Structure formats: structure tokens, C-alpha cells
Amino acid sequence: MRHLILLSAAALLAACDGTAENAGEVTDAKNGEAAVVGQGPAERMGARLDAARESAEAAVEAKADALRDKADLDAEKLEAQADRFEERAKQVRDEAKEAAKQLEESVER
């Protein structure tokens, strides 16, 4: 009966704990190692594991954000470079048209 009470108390707290902490609560309840839910060794270790996992996930997300920001900056630089190339190409075409026009005029004379 005691195990059933501890297991149901662990289930009630499961909504706010991490998965490893919840598993630790259940283990502690089964082994009778926690006088109160939240005080067993397996639950404390589970809480630490959950915190480490959350920290690692946050680090990965921060790195992904940094990579997205760098990609955005690189894309902006490449767009600006493409705009400069397009402008230079327009200038070259205009110069070529002017040169062709002058050549035609000189041939007609």
C-alpha cells in the first residue's frame, strides 16, 4: 500500500519534473528510499541529469541561432556583391552600346 501511495504521489508531480527525475521518483518509491517525494537519491540524480540535458539543449540551440545569424549576414553580403556586379554589368553594356554607336557613326562618315 505504501508503494502505491508513493507511486501515485510521484505521478502527481510528474507534470513539473523532467523525465529522468520522474523515473528517479518511481525508482525511489519502489525501493522505499524516499521518506518524502523529492528526497530520494535516484530522483535527485534524475533532476541533475535533466538539468544537464536542458543545458546541453540550450547550448545547441544557441549555436544554431548563431549559425542562422551568420548565414543571414553572409546572404546579405552576397546580395550586396551581386547588386554591385549587376550595376557593373549594366555599365559595361552601356559602354559597349556607346562604343558601337560611335563606331557606326565613324563608318557612316
Low-confidence stretches: none
Number of strands: 0
Shape: rod-shaped
Strand coverage percent: under 5%
Q: Helix coverage percent of residues?
A: over 70%
The biggest sheet amounts to: none
Mean pLDDT: 83
Distance between the termini: 114 Å
Give me the strand/helix succession.
Answer: HHH
Number of helices: 3
What does this 3D model show about the protein?
There is one protein chain. The protein is mainly alpha-helical. Helix content is 85%, strand content 0%. It has three helices and no strands. It has helices at 2-13, 19-31, 41-108. The longest helix has 68 residues, at 41-108. It starts with a helix and ends with a helix. The mean pLDDT is 83.
Topology record:
Blueprint: H1 2-13, H2 19-31, H3 41-108
Summarize the structure.
The protein is built from three helices and no strands.
Which properties best describe this structure?
109 residues; mainly alpha; 3 helices; rod-shaped; signal; Lipoprotein
